[in-house]
Structures are given as C-alpha cells and as structure tokens.
Design goal:
By secondary structure, this protein is mainly alpha-helical. The chain folds into three domains: 180 residues, no CATH class; 93 residues, no CATH class; 48 residues, no CATH class. Helices cover 54% and strands 2% of the residues. It contains 16 helices and two strands. The longest helix has 36 residues. The two termini are 36 Å apart. About 4% of the residues have low confidence.
C-alpha cells in the first residue's frame, strides 16, 4: 500500500520521476542513489525546507507544524494558530498552548526535520528496497523481525545513514532559500557567503533586541534613499526607529546605536554591487516587502466589524489590501485613507505578538 501510494504521488501529483530532484552520487551506499523513492523523499525534503525558509523570511508561523500538517507537496496546512510576527522575536509562537515553544520561530526548522524523519521511517522499506529486494514476497512476520533477516538489518543501516546525509541536504536547501529571500528583501542581487552572518543574522539580532516590527522595518528601509558616504545615515536611523514597539523593554539609545552599526554595514554592502543593482535597490525591495501584512489583530478587527454590521466595507477593503500587499496605496482600488492608515500603522499594544488556540 505504501508503495502504491508513493507511486501515485510521484506519477500523478509530481508529474513523474523526471520531475524529481536529480540523483545524488555521494550517498553512503551507491546502491540506493538511483532509487526513485530516495529521489522522491529528497524532493519532499527540498520542498518543505524551501517552503519553511520562505515563511521564516517573512515571519509567518504555523503554531502547530506537526506531521499531519506537513505535506509531500511542500505545503503547511492547518486550521488554527497561523500568524505573521509583529515584533521580531525568535521565541515567538502564535499558539498559546505551545508552552515549550516547539513551533516558535527559532525552533520550527528542527520541528520540520523531525516531521520529515518520521516520514522517512514510514518509507523505510521503499528507501532501502535496493538492498532488501522485493519485500512483497516476505511474510509479514519476517519483515517485522529486523534482526532476524540479514538483508533487512543491512537496509536499516543504509536507510539510517541515508537519512543523516539527506539531513545535511535539508540544512543546505533551507539556508540557500532563506539567504535568497533576505537578499530580495534587502535589495541585494548578489548572494555572498558572508551575508548570512554579517548582514542577515546580525539584522535579526538587532530586531530581536530592539523589539522592532519585523515587516515594517523592511518596508521603511525600502523607502529610504541611502547614500554611499553615509551622510544621511542618522536621518535614516530615525525613520527606522519608527518600527520600534512603543512599550519595548530595550533601551532606545542602545537600539539606535545597534541600528546605526548595522545600517553602516548594510550601506557598504549595498554599494559594493554594480551600479545598475544599486539603482534598482528600492524597486526590488518594494517588490518583496509588503506595505500591508494581514496580521491577527487586523483579522480580529474585521471579524468584530462584520459581526456588528454585515454590510461593513472593511472586509472588502482588507481583502483588497491583502491581495495587493506591495502597493504604495489602495485608493484607486476603493480603500479609504482611514482604513489604509489604520491597518498599515502600528500594532495596538494589547495585540502585539498575540496568540490563539487551534479552536480560535
């Protein structure tokens, strides 16, 4: 049954074996490198790693990212605690029942890999089929006694090593897509190895320590005309400080200093690119940094408004903004200035980093 289901997914949903990730030559056992089920498993790993990296790039979290909410197609499905982060917080989880932070921003890459290892366990017979042979002819009781069958024991070792190897691939898929996403959000056209720590991760540290609004910071940065000589850096820092949570615990002078230090590095990095790339920086950034984010507090406002008045235009207006999030304004699409100002402004203090349950 597992094999029939895997074959169906490969052939009908993924378009056939030719669409799977290319074979890998350096697995622990060369006998499994051409196995279509190994390639299928790697394809599933790649899709989910890249999907998760895209979510992390924008601070979008599934508060219940467990195995039944993980798809072979690289989707994350659930009914309940999804959310975009408000202020950047590595420990944030939108699920108020997630006391151990299993699905917090910092931990979801590990949670996703745990899910994928469980999937590998279910596919173990197929992943090791080149070593086991045709298991359909083995009595069920013999297949269940791993230690009693030399081929099955060998296959278990091969599959274990294989999954460890693919685990390293998972990290590479995730990091590559994450860096690509941050390059786009920062208007950088060249991906450089040093950027991951010096630009991307250091920015997240500044945001975390300073209680900065994750998406508003990027959008504000996209609207700033930076200068290579840094002559307007102080003015730019003041604008970026507007993304700071009003009741933040961090010292504002410290936050200002760390933003200045990071911005100085970023300016040097941005102006090290070709002139054509520099000229397009703001265009690229505004194409990848939303002016409107469908946050939980906005959804709550819409629900309350429509419950009070089913004819309220707010649902239509918010839907228009949500389906055109990168625009500079929505007046031409029928959104009032008041609605735009309200839902692109600061998050109300009592709603910052709100949580909900699976039944909310």
């Amino acid at each position: 049954m597992t094999q029939r289901l895997a074959d169906y997914v490969i052939d009908e949903l993924l378009g056939g074996e030719s669409n799977l990730i290319v074979p890998k030559a350096d697995y622990p056992d060369a006998n499994v490198q051409q196995n279509r089920y190994v390639r299928f498993y790697r394809e599933v790993v790649k899709r989910n790693a890249e999907m998760l990296a895209q979510c992390q790039t924008y601070g979008f979290l599934n508060g219940v990212l467990n195995t039944d909410n993980t798809s072979v197609l690289g989707l994350s499905m659930d009914y309940g605690p999804f959310a975009f982060m408000d202020t950047f917080n590595r420990n944030y989880t939108p699920n108020h029942d997630d006391g151990n932070l299993r699905y917090g921003y910092k931990y979801v890459p590990t949670a996703m890999w745990w899910n994928l290892v469980r999937f590998a366990e279910d596919m173990g017979e197929l992943l090791g089929s080149s070593v086991i042979g045709d298991t359909s002819k083995l009595p069920r009781e013999q297949f269940g006694q791993f230690k009693a069958n030399e081929q099955l024991e060998q296959a278990q070792i091969v599959v274990s090593n294989l999954v460890d190897s693919i685990g390293e691939e998972y990290k590479t898929f995730y990091k590559t897509k994450l860096d690509e996403g941050f390059c786009q959000r920062l208007g950088l056209t060249e991906t450089r190895e040093a950027d991951h720590e010096e630009i991307f991760q250091s920015l997240l540290e500044v945001m975390d320590a300073g209680s900065l609004d994750y998406n508003k910071f990027f959008r504000t940065l996209s609207e700033l005309s930076l200068k290579a000589d840094g002559s307007n850096t102080d003015a730019c820092v003041e604008k970026l400080l507007e993304s700071r949570q009003e009741n933040a615990f961090s010292d504002i002078l410290t936050t200002k200093r760390t933003i200045t230090e990071w911005l100085t590095k970023y300016i040097a990095r941005a102006f090290s690119e070709p002139q054509t790339a520099i000229d397009q920086r703001q265009v690229v950034m505004q194409d990848h940094n939303p002016n409107f984010v469908l946050r939980n507090w906005v959804l709550d406002e819409v629900i309350q408004a429509v419950q009070a008045d089913p004819t309220s235009p707010v649902l239509r207006e918010v839907l228009t903004m949500a389906t055109n999030p990168f625009r500079r304004g929505w007046a031409e699409l029928g959104v009032t200035a008041e609605t735009e100002r309200k839902f692109t402004g600061p998050v109300p203090g009592n709603f910052i980093d709100s949580t909900c349950s699976c039944s909310s």
